[in-house]
Amino acid sequence: MKYIGENGAKSLGEEISKCVILTSLNLDLRGNIINENGAKYLGEGISKCVMIISLDLNLRSNSIGKNGVKYLGEEISKCVTLTSLNLDLSGNRISDNGAKYLGEGISKCVIITSLNLNIGENSISENGA
Length: 129
Known about the structure:
Elements: H1 5-16, E1 24-28, H2 35-47, E2 54-58, H3 65-76, E3 84-88, H4 95-107, E4 114-118
Parallel strand pairs: 1-2, 2-3, 3-4
Helix pairs in contact: 1-2, 2-3, 3-4
């Protein structure tokens, strides 16, 4: 099995960033071991799509950890036109701090009307929730 890894995620993020008038993105990268830097690169690319309204992002089982989800949350927070977010981050070891960072980022998207968040299998305690 081949993985895109961090470098593939970086390239993908760079190309997505060129789609500045993109309004909807559905991206399934589950099980690609992109790690925390890959999550950062993807987030940076997505945040440049200034007209994005709908984001469906599956990063299940990618070892992004708490720092990767922090980067992702920071970049998603820049998507001020986002109204629908479907995010699968299950199985990424994001822990309590990662859940906190993600929540902080999403909370800045003040016009979201639809949110579907899967953060199962991440060792998040009631403090993180």
